């Protein structure tokens, strides 16, 4: 159980979560209550403030009216009406605008005409309609028009109306005087058509609106005021209290956490003890807790353990009996003879197939020396070999199949395949031999040899004579035959040549597979071989209206090879490329060097090879389409022969093809030994390609022995470039030159620090497959994808596994 998932931690976390949730709930509830309390308090403050501001506006406007009223009733104003020189009164009007909130003032006579025009023009706002009411009633009045108050007061002389004074007061200036340095955002409205707001006014917040009461003069103008306080003001009032509450709550949670942790540990201790006893196998388990649940859990574990033990015993016994039955059934029904002997050479087991082979019954041979099944010569050497092997000499036939002569009970002999393996039974060394009668196979091989000899003597020789005679007749009497007759002779000659080619291919592949064909190896220039092959096939190419193009490589491309057999390979590849190319197309031949190998490519733009046929292209009598044999000719043996020839030269042959775009066949041959001696050997590299390098994966193979490399390289050549390195130093040099998608290596490289190499940066970021005969004796890092035993390696399974590893590497990089 990990610490982060323990019951104590889980219990503590649960308690803490509940307390924390409750704490948040309390904070939220009290914050809301505090918010509502502050909001109610603020609304009351705004109500009082709104009333005060309305009263101030009313008082300010009344004060201005009183000033205008006193001026209109003063002796100065009466004298000003009769002062013909207009010396004094206009100065009083100027003073009232300078000393009060009055923005402008004008005197007028009993007819409403403005006075003192000699000193200043009447204001633009003045017109007789403003004073008509006062002139008609003799009473002062206050008007509000388009954002301005107009205070009109009459001038009376001995009870007679002689004129009056009108003053203009800006409502905006009046409001600004009242709201000097306001704390709130506000707006003041007079009627439904005029409103003034300060620049900080906004709609979000606590708002209080009040209409001027009837006892105020400004109520006649439907005056209202709105005060707005943003919610941030309330939050500022809550913050100090909230922070203090949170700090105190967190301090209070600390002892609760400690107590919950202690309780959780106490609850988890019996479970931890139970888990320890289960993992250690300390059965029967005794409960260390008095809790009913723990006692029931302990009893359940003890009961389950007993049932598992009983079930395992039953299963093991059943599997043993079943395995013995299966093994006996296999041994008794297998077609091959299986014989087991002791280290003294006495027969221990003898299956029914062995009884049929040797003519002995089981009871007749059990306990007797195995020599009774051997010829006299083999019997004499068997005992010496067995004693030498048991004495410590190296094994010579164990694990290796070989042909022997076996002897039946009646003294007759027969050829047999024999394979021997060693095993240990109850601490005793024993040997098992599997023997198969190959009498029929020997007869078949003899028949095949006789058939090949017959084909060579009885068919090839007459066909050669017939072909020569037909060629002579067609050449000498060309103009003496009718067209139909010449056509029939030409057809007969072509069929003779086709049969001759088939017979020659059959003879060649038989010799190659039976290793009876000898190679005349000599220092050979590949350039010369290719040019000669092109010349030999030029006529065939012209007949098919195909052009042969050669891209020459190194002039001194020397290999150790049989020139005749290499020309045979080139002829097979060129004839196939020509046959499967359309008229007017080109067949390109190229030569290049790849480190210690020369590579020859033959590329055509023909129909291509279907993907499902790629695995069988080098088999005998194989063609991608059976109809091609009739349409284009050929025996289906050329590629099989070519592969055998190239492999006997220690080279490789392969191809890549796309349906509808053509095919490229290529083979590689080792550079001549005298030339390779001058090459650097620190990083020997062999690469194989079947499509553009940018589209292929790169793999590094590290092993001191390159025997397995060629098989793996051949299997993966369809989608992966293989680079071979014989040591860790060579591998490091290869890694410094390029990036690899996969590394395959043998960890048993003598004198090499394999663990350190595996943890290097460039290596740790690459998928690795280990190949060895023994498991590694060090801890494997996480980037080791898989490991295979060399002696039991399945190449096809490895190929599928490599494809899967490389495919998964591409998905992670896309993401």
TrEMBL record:
One of its GO terms (cellular component) is plasma membrane. Coiled coil: none annotated. Residues 454-673 form the Histidine kinase domain. Keywords: ATP-binding, Kinase, Membrane, Nucleotide-binding, Phosphoprotein, Transferase, Transmembrane, Transmembrane helix, Two-component regulatory system. The keyword Hydrolase does not apply. Gene3D superfamilies: 1.10.287.130, Histidine kinase-like ATPase, C-terminal domain (3.30.565.10), PAS domain (3.30.450.20). The keyword Membrane applies. Residues 323-393 form the PAS domain. Putative oxygen sensor; modulates the activity of FixJ, a transcriptional activator of nitrogen fixation fixK gene. FixL probably acts as a kinase that phosphorylates FixJ. This is Sensor protein FixL. The lineage of its organism: Bacteria, Pseudomonadati, Pseudomonadota, Gammaproteobacteria, Vibrionales.
């Amino acid at each position: 159980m990990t610490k982060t998932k323990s019951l104590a931690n889980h219990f503590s976390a649960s308690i803490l979560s509940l307390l924390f949730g409750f704490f948040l709930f309390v904070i939220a509830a009290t914050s809301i209550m505090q918010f509502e309390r502050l909001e109610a308090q603020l609304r009351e403050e705004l109500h009082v403030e709104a009333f005060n501001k309305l009263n101030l506006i009313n008082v300010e406007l009344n004060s201005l009216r009183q000033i205008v009223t006193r001026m209109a009733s003063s002796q100065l104003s009466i004298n000003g009406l009769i002062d013909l020189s207009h010396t004094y009164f206009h100065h009083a009007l100027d003073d009232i605008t300078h000393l009060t909130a009055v923005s402008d003032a004008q005197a007028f006579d009993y007819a409403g005409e403005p006075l003192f025009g000699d000193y200043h023009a009447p204001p633009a706002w003045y017109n007789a309609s403003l004073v008509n009411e006062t002139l008609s009633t003799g009473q002062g009045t206050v008007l509000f028009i388009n954002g301005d108050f107009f205070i009109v007061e009459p001038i009376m002389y001995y009870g007679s109306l002689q004129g009056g004074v009108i003053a203009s007061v800006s409502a905006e200036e009046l409001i600004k005087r009242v709201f000097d340095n306001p704390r709130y955002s506000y707006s003041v409205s007079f009627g439904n058509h005029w409103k003034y707001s300060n620049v900080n006014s906004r709609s979000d917040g606590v708002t209080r609106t009040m209409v001027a009461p009837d006892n105020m003069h400004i109520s006649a103008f439907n005056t209202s005021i709105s005060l707005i306080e943003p919610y941030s003001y309330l939050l500022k009032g809550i913050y100090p209290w909230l922070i203090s509450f949170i700090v105190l709550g967190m301090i209070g949670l600390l002892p609760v956490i400690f107590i919950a942790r202690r309780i959780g540990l106490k609850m988890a201790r019996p479970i931890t003890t139970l888990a320890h006893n289960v993992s250690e196998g300390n059965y029967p388990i005794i409960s260390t807790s008095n809790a009913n649940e723990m006692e029931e859990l302990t009893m359940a574990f003890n009961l389950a353990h007993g049932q598992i033990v009983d079930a395992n015993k039953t299963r093991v016994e059943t599997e043993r009996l079943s395995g013995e039955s299966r093994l006996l059934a296999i041994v008794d029904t297998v077609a091959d003879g299986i014989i087991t002997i002791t280290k003294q050479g006495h027969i221990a087991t003898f299956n029914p197939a062995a009884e049929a082979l040797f003519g002995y019954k089981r009871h007749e041979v059990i306990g007797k020396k195995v020599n009774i099944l051997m010829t006299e010569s083999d019997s004499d050497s068997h005992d010496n070999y067995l004693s030498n092997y048991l004495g410590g000499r190296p094994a010579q036939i164990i694990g290796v199949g070989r042909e022997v002569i076996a002897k039946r009970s009646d003294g007759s002999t027969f050829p047999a395949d024999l394979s021997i393996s060693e095993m240990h039974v109850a601490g005793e060394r024993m040997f098992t031999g599997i023997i198969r009668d190959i009498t029929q196979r020997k007869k078949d091989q003899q028949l095949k040899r006789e058939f090949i000899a017959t084909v060579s003597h009885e068919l090839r020789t007459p066909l050669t004579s017939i072909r020569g005679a037909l060629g002579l007749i067609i050449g000498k009497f060309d103009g003496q035959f009718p067209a139909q007759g010449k056509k029939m002779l030409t057809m007969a000659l072509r069929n003779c040549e086709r049969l001759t080619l088939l017979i020659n291919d059959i003879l060649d592949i038989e010799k190659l597979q039976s290793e009876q064909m000898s190679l005349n190896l000599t220092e050979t220039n590949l350039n010369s071989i290719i040019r000669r092959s092109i010349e030999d096939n030029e006529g065939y190419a012209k007949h098919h209206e195909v052009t042969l193009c050669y891209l020459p490589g190194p002039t001194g491309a020397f290999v150790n090879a049989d020139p005749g057999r290499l020309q045979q390979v080139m002829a097979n590849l060129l004839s196939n490329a020509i046959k499967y190319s359309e008229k007017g197309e080109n067949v390109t031949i190229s030569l290049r060097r790849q480190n210690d190998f020369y590579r020859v490519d033959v590329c055509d733009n023909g129909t291509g090879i279907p993907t499902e046929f790629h695995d069988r292209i080098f088999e005998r009598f194989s063609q991608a389409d059976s109809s091609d044999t009739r349409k284009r000719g050929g025996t289906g043996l050329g590629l099989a022969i070519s592969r055998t020839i190239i492999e006997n030269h220690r080279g490789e042959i392969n191809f890549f093809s796309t349906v509808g775009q053509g095919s490229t066949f290529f083979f590689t041959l080792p550079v001549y030994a005298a030339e390779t001696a001058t090459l650097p050997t620190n990083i020997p590299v062999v690469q194989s390609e079947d499509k553009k390098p940018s589209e292929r994966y790169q793999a590094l193979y590290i092993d001191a022995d390159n025997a397995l490399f060629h098989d793996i390289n051949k299997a993966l050549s369809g989608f992966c470039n293989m680079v071979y390195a014989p040591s860790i130093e060579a591998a490091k040099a290869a890694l410094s030159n390029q990036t690899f998608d996969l590394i395959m290596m043998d960890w048993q490289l003598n004198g090499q620090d394999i663990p350190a190499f595996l943890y290097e940066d460039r290596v740790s970021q690459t998928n690795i497959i280990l190949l060895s005969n023994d498991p590694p004796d060090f801890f494997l890092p996480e980037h080791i994808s898989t490991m295979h035993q060399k002696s039991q390696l399945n190449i096809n399974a490895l190929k599928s596994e490599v494809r899967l590893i490389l495919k998964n590497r591409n998905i992670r990089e896309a993401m």
